[in-house]
Design goal:
Shape of chain A: globular
Radius of gyration of chain A: 19 Å
Structural class of chain A: mainly alpha
Oligomer: homodimer
Number of strands of chain A: 3
Number of helices of chain A: 6
Strand content of chain A: 5-15%
Chain lengths: 163, 163
Amino acid sequence: MTFPVPRMSPSEAEAWTGLIRVCMLLPAELDSQLQRDSSMTHFEFAVLTFVRWAPESRASMTAIAEATNSTLSRLSHVCTRLQKRGLVEKSASASDARVTEVTLTSAGRRELVRATPGHIETVRRLVIDVLSDDDLAALARITRILGERLDPSCRGDGEIPGQ
Amino acid sequence: MTFPVPRMSPSEAEAWTGLIRVCMLLPAELDSQLQRDSSMTHFEFAVLTFVRWAPESRASMTAIAEATNSTLSRLSHVCTRLQKRGLVEKSASASDARVTEVTLTSAGRRELVRATPGHIETVRRLVIDVLSDDDLAALARITRILGERLDPSCRGDGEIPGQ
DNA sequence: CCCTGAAAGTTGTTGCGTCAACTAATTGCC
DNA sequence: GGCAATTAGTTGACGCAACAACTTTCAGGG
């Protein structure tokens, strides 16, 4: 059961409580699987994956932060921990001494390669494989709309027109 | 931009990254609004709301934990804090001395009533009002499927049949 | 040049969530 | 009726995230 929501029609409440339930449970499940099988959080996995596929397998803190919807503060703490664990290297950029460039160590790449299949399998088991192609397409469309409304970087477009 | 996902078709990756993005951003936005306007987290709001609409405005820890998809431990910490802030009362049940029954104080009810309109308005602004009726119905259906796969209380049905 | 302001990160504190260990009460059963 | 097993909940320690304050570096204007 989910909690009741006042001032909302039944169909609206159903969509809302369903969404919020997924938002609570899915990240927890992803963290749980990655923590159990690979000793890393989903956020750490996302950081490592982004760096791996970046040009030259190298990315600035700001680029990673934007890609992962996180703050520089959070990312800085996480990269410090990843560095202490020997999974990434931090180095000052040659062209701009302010920017910190992050690269994977060989151990970091190895751990990531080892963690990826289990994560993908989990994503398929929990989401992809339980939905039809139509549902998948609808989910992509709906989450794109919601994401654009939510993303802080898209907030420069002034007040919401209409209501 | 979201991070790349290996071993997944473009349409699958779009649905997946879209969903995970919403799962990261939406709870943060809800917490932010409630914290700013009413000095409470979304989870605290959910707890107070569930108690308010429970029979006799009274609920056991276990009932609240199930309704909010949380653990007893987390809930216990939160209710202790809510009690210290004077928003709820805890009392032992008359019929079973193990169960703790939670009720709202008058201050708790007042704060909840004050917080609700802003929260509902936020939910409408971020989700309900940006989707068509068809999208809303699709979202309800999709999240119901995902929620059933995710909910720990539905895990007793053995392994996933087929693949 | 120099100086103001902005950009890029870092660091410390504080608060919440998780995990494991624990207490207390109740049910089942022999 | 007494004892094991289960249920309900609490507590303490540890880890991660948010927020604010700070440092350092770069760009632009006088």
